[in-house]
Design brief:
The complex is a heterodimer of chains A (about 140) and B (about 110). Chain A is an all-alpha fold. Chain A has helices at about 5-35, 40-45, 55-65, 65-75, 75-95, 100-115, 115-135. Chain A is globular. Chain A starts with a helix and ends with a helix. With about 110 residues, chain B is mainly α. Chain B is about 75% helix and about 0% strand. Chain B has helices spanning about 5-15, 20-30, 35-40, 50-60, 65-70, 70-80, 80-85, 85-110. The chains are: A mainly alpha (about 140), B mainly alpha (about 110). At the A-B interface, helix 1 and helix 6 of A face helix 6, helix 7 and helix 8 of B.
Chain lengths: ~140, ~110
């Protein structure tokens, strides 16, 4: 039993809106105060950065076309920015044409990632990024 | 199935389901054929309390969602720092209900 189509779409749209507002808040904050907002629960409790810490800074660097800097902040930014750009358009398109092409892909992707061939490398990459993040003291 | 067997099942497993589902499960089990008892007895359910503990400690990494089998949402939670912490907090309160729903869905595969 998986999540239903409408629920998934609402969830993604809400997270995309939250994501864009978060980027704007960070950009304004960076321009005015020259520092970052920090809400990461994991980091605030354990003082260690989490695997996705630094992604906001990475995405802001990509927007400023500083690609190397973005990679050094957090390589996950290169995955998240395309997702943030493409998903809302795709989902609005799906909703208007009453199709479920993204939902079908999501279910397929979920099945694929559960396969050991893809799951273990993914876990390894996340762990490497995490260790790198701790080493960098983000 | 015999009412005694069904009541035994309900007694040992009622914590895995929502309270409003238990009566429905009981009715359904009683009308079920006796040959399915062996399978139904051996289904493994996920304990809501365990998932809640995982959610409290590793919720911002999405581990609770991975354990429930929602891999896609788990990846989403992992890559966004637990949905900026908001999703993590929402899940602290909703994950037990989600686990029970998953358990019910799993049982339904055998009931119908």
């Amino acid at each position: 039993m998986s999540i239903s189509r409408n629920r998934l779409y609402v969830l993604i749209i809400v997270s995309c809106i939250a994501g864009y507002s978060w980027l704007i808040i960070n950009k304004i904050n960076y321009l005015t105060l020259n520092k970052n907002v920090n809400v990461c629960l994991f980091k605030n409790i354990t003082t260690l950065p989490c695997p996705s810490c630094g992604t906001t800074r990475a995405i802001l660097s990509i927007i400023d076309r500083k690609y190397l800097e973005a990679f050094l902040w957090n390589p996950l930014g290169f995955i998240l920015l395309p997702i943030l750009l493409i998903l809302p358009i795709w989902i609005v398109f799906d909703l208007f044409t009453k199709r479920k092409s993204f939902y079908v892909l999501y279910i397929k992707a979920e099945k694929t990632i559960k396969n050991k061939v893809f799951a273990y490398p993914a876990i390894l990459i996340i762990l490497i990024i995490w260790i790198w993040n701790i080493y960098k003291k983000l | 199935m015999e009412a005694q067997k069904v009541d035994m099942f309900i007694m040992t497993n009622s914590k895995f389901f929502e309270s409003h589902q238990v009566a429905q499960i009981r009715d359904r089990l009683i009308s079920l054929d006796d040959s399915k008892w062996g399978i139904i007895q051996t289904i493994q359910f996920k304990d809501p309390t365990t998932i809640l503990i995982v959610s409290l400690f590793a919720g911002s990494l999405g581990i609770d969602r991975f354990m429930l089998g929602d891999t896609g949402l788990g990846v989403g939670k992992l890559l966004t720092c637990g949905g900026l912490g908001i999703w993590t907090i929402i899940d602290w309160f909703s994950i037990m209900g989600k686990t029970r729903e998953k358990n019910f869905a799993k049982l339904q595969l055998f009931l119908f």
